[in-house]
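Researcher: Next sequence.
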Amino acid sequence: MSDVKRDAETVVVGLGSPIMCDDAVGLRVSEAIEAMDLEGVDCCQEAVGGLDILPVIHGYRFAVIVDAIQTGQYGPGTVMLFSEHDFDEAIAHAASHDVNLPTAMKIGRQMDPEIMPEEVRFVAIEVQDIKTVTETMTPEVEASVESAGRAVLHIIEELTGSAPRRRSS
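Model: Next structure:
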């Protein structure tokens, strides 16, 4: 799999479950970016975690992963931006049977550095309810989809050096 080459330079990966209330927010943000039909940007919505994220981002120069987070420290709908380095301590203290996303990135870089993205960024949205089975998000989290989308666009511009443009027909 080390010859993976993608046409697009950047991938936006929305993570979550479409039926677990606020856990769908990553999916919704990725869908909103996908609807913009941006040049050089692929979007996908996945219900994966840990090492299963690696094949999704292999072959891209940049990856932006959008997901729900529940810290209890911020109000629902708060948008937070992270880089891989922000998680160095989480990686150091991760249990061997629990491979979180930052640990998966580190393992991917050790196993296949030539096909891993140069840079992976994370957009996390503080959520309120990820246990209720429903396709409806809480109002605060629903309202954050637009600002989280703007954060993704900002990150893409920062990574690529130019504002993302719509594909020409």
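Model: The helical segments are 25-35, 54-57, 88-92, 101-111, 139-143, 145-160. The chain is about 30% helix and 20% strand.
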